[in-house]
Amino acid sequence: MELTGRVALITGAKRIGAVVATELAARGADVAIAYRHSRAEADQTVERVNAAGRRGAALQADLSNADACSALVSRVAEEFGRLDILINMASVYNSVSFDELSAAEWDKVMDTDLRAAFLCAHAAVPHMRKQGGGRIINFSDWIARSGRPRYKGFLPYYVAKAGAMALTEALALELASDNILVNAVAPGPILAPPDTTEAEHQAVAAATPLGRWGGEAEIAKAVLAFLETDFVTGETIRVDGGRHLK
Question: What is the pTM (predicted TM-score) of this model?
Answer without folding.
Answer: 0.96
